[in-house]
Amino acid sequence: MASILRVVARRYSTANKQFLHRALSDTSHSAHHGEGDVWKKMFLFLAIPVMGFCTYNGFFSEEANAEHHREEFVPYSHLRIRVRRFPWSDGNHSLFHSHYNALPEGFEDEEH
Length: 112
Known about the structure:
The structure is a single chain. The protein is mainly α. It has helices at 2-25, 35-64. The longest helix is centred in the middle third of the chain and has 30 residues, at 35-64. The mean pLDDT is 78.
């Protein structure tokens, strides 16, 4: 077993040395000269407009979906089980609670 591991390690180290030698001896950097410019242009002309469109869509699609009503509460026994109280607020509301999240007793009335 140890001899097999020695052979594998020797072949691996020889292959790495040959790869490293070829990589370091290659002095022509012309093949990789313009790659930074391509990525910079892709970021400026592709990524920034896509991020802007997604931001615009996220803000204005919320207004279109504001008419959605929450579903009717069904008191399933396997959902909203509270073994321990939450360490914030009254212990019954989750950390990011909204009027769309049901409590074990049902939905809260929306307060504005």
